Amino acid sequence: MIEQTAIETPSVYTDSTDELLIDIRDLRKSFGKNAVLKGFNLQLHSRENLVIIGRSGSGKSVLLKCIVRLERPDSGLLNVLGRDVPSLNQTEMDLLRADVGFLFQGSALYDSMTVRENLEFPLRRHPEKLRDIDIEQLVLEALDSVGLVYAVDLMPEELSGGMKKRVALARTIILRPKIILYDEPSSGLDPITAKEIIKLILDIQEKYNTASLIITHDMDFARIIANRMVILVDGINYAEGSYAALNNSDDPKIKAFFK
Amino acid sequence: MNRVLTFFNETGLITQFAARYFRELVKRPFEFKELLRQCYLLGNKSLFLVVVTGFIMGIVLTLQTRPTMIEFGAEAYMPSMIGIAVVREIGPMITALICAGKIGSGIGAELGSMRVTEQIDAMEVSGINPFKYLVVTRITAMTLMLPLLVIASDTISLFGSFLIENMKGDVSWTLYFSKVFEVLEFGDLIPSIIKSFFFGFAIGLVGCYKGYYSKKGTAGVGKAANSAVVLSSLLLFVFDFVAVLITDIFYEL
Predict the structure, then answer these.
(1) Average pLDDT of chain B to the nearest whole number
(2) CA A81, A207, A20 angle in degrees (round to 5)?
(3) What are A's interface residues with B at a Cβ cutoff of 8 A?
(4) Chain A interface, mutation test: which of B28, B119, B126, most A Cβ atoms within 10 Å?
(5) Domain total for chain A?
(6) Which of A35, A106, A150, B117 is the most exposed place for a label (fewest CB within 10 A)?
(7) Across the interface, do B128 and A94 touch by the CB < 8 Å criterion?
(8) Is residue A11 in some structural domain?
(9) Which domain holds residue A30?
(10) Residue B130: cis peptide before it, omega within 30 degrees of 0
């Protein structure tokens, strides 16, 4: 069990002055006859930690993939950082992607490259992000943020699951994204490592001023990190609110997640 | 009926994949460093296998045909016959088949496992074009490296054949190779090299296609590697058939 007392719940909450970073309205996505998203709505503001929970196969990962256009939605409004994602051309999309970090469930480190090369790889292809800053300096700074400077020359196969997650996080923040999407950041990790990852996510949010959209099944994780939660049921945002508010709900579909 | 549809569907998809390769090939940015790395990995690391098989092929071919040639009193034609057979057909085809097995399956498995572990998606969400970085470099490297491997294999094959001729028929180095080059013309070498480019392209294309669109799961990776070998070997024979038909037209002119 993760002790809530060990890590403070973030104090940043959405207010009217916060910038709207992601605006999703009536988003629909089907795979053949299987409708996964059936009119999903979501707004993510700057400095916010928004957690999405839902059953396996309910379309949470599909939603994240739609945001970075790994999947194309069938219909609906999908606006990220003021840009209409489905209508962007490839160059515009690549520039937008540099502002939206994505932490994959399995870390997705490039296994033929060292940790250093993994971090350098996106940087070298986005020279606009460098602005006279030394690549080496950025790599070491990102690794320092996750406490893994000593692993700079290791190969991914030499890292533990938790270390891989931290390196993946370093690779995500190296481009200084405004939004980070987390796909099950605590999956496959022991409770202590999961707690370290939570702390890391909060530290990074504070240091780089990012907004986070987090998918998780881990309710302890959600309780600690979420400013706001969305419950995805039957392809729609079934319920929305703080952890405490949803936890006190009488709706059996909501209660099922908090047992 | 379903199989026929699948065949045409697959053919269409591979053609689209090839068309995308040519589009991306001429678009900036060019991944020269990765191209060179792939040339080293696909070319240099296959050299030993290709050279060993080429050497054995030359020896076996000579040992198998020699008794028959002696029976007809035509042993003087051995170097010419082996030279033409190796350069025109056996060298390119055997080298390509070996590369289809080693490199085609390797590319299929590598890209397949990158797809399964979301590394290709990770590239895409970092704003990097994975097709350009992974596919264009591998197909180009394979297209450039196979002709060089074929030349190496042909050379070693002829050397193997010479060793047998020297041991069994006391044929000197100078006599053997002057006989080989007496009959070999540019008309034999050039079509052989040109078709090797196509063979290399086919191996790279099929390996990348199968790996890039591999189904999720470890079974998908295995299937990608396996079907990359099967389909590229089949394509090699089709390309060879077409190449021989075209070359034959030029020989008759």
Answers:
(1) 91
(2) 20
(3) 65, 68, 70, 90, 93-98, 100, 102, 104-106, 108-111, 121-122, 125-126, 171, 175
(4) B126
(5) 1
(6) A150
(7) yes
(8) no
(9) 20-110+181-258
(10) no
SS3 of A93-111: the string is HHHHHCCEEEECCCCCCCC
pLDDT(B161) > 90: yes
Q: Judging by DSSP bridges, how do beta strands A20-31 and A34-45 pair with one another?
A: antiparallel
Tell me the residue type at B181: F
In a domain, A155, yes or no: no
Position A152 in a domain? no
Smallest Cα distance from A110 to chain B, Å: 6
> Can you give the pLDDT at residue B45?
84
Please state the separation of Cα B62 from the chain's center in Å. Answer: 23
Structural Rg of chain A based on CA atoms: 18
Q: Does B41 touch chain A (CB under 8 A)?
A: no
Residues of chain A whose pLDDT is less than 70? 1-17, 128-132
Give the per-residue pLDDT at A10. 45
What is the reported pLDDT for A132? Answer: 64
A95, A104, A171 member nearest B127 (Cβ): A95
pLDDT at B201: 96
| Cβ pair A122:B126 closer than 8 A | yes
Give chain A positions within 8 Å (CB) of B107: none
pLDDT of A258: 83
Residue among A97, A105, A106 whose CB faces B126 most closely: A97
First-last CA distance in chain B: 42
Percent of chain B with pLDDT over 70: 100
Residue A55's CATH number: 3.40.50.300
- Whether A141 maps to a domain, the answer reads no
The whole-angstrom distance between B147's CA and the closest CA on chain A is 27
Q: CA nearest B127 in A: which residue?
A: A94
For residue B126, list chain A residues with Cβ-Cβ distance below 8 A.
97-98, 121-122, 125-126, 171, 175
Distance from CA of A122 to the nearest CA of B (A): 6
Which two tokens mark A214? Answer: 């987090």
Do B124 and A106 lie within an 8 Å CB cutoff?
A: no
- Comparing C-alpha atoms, which of A2, A1, A65 is closest to residue A199? A2
What number is the average pLDDT over the span B195-222? 91
Distance CA A57, CA A54 (A): 8
DSSP, residue by residue, A33-84: TEEEEEEEEEEEETT-EEEEEE-TTSSHHHHHHHHTTSS--SEEEEEETTEE
Structure tokens at B165: 């001729």
Check B127 against A125: CB less than 8 A apart.
yes
Q: Rounded distance, CA A46 to CA A211, Å?
A: 5
Name the residue facing A108 among B122, B127, B129 (closest C-beta): B122
By the CB < 8 Å criterion, does B20 face chain A?
no
- The answer to whether B122 touches A102, Cβ cutoff 8 Å, is yes
Which chain B residue's Cα is nearest to A181?
B125
- B116 confidence band (pLDDT: 50, 70, 90): very high
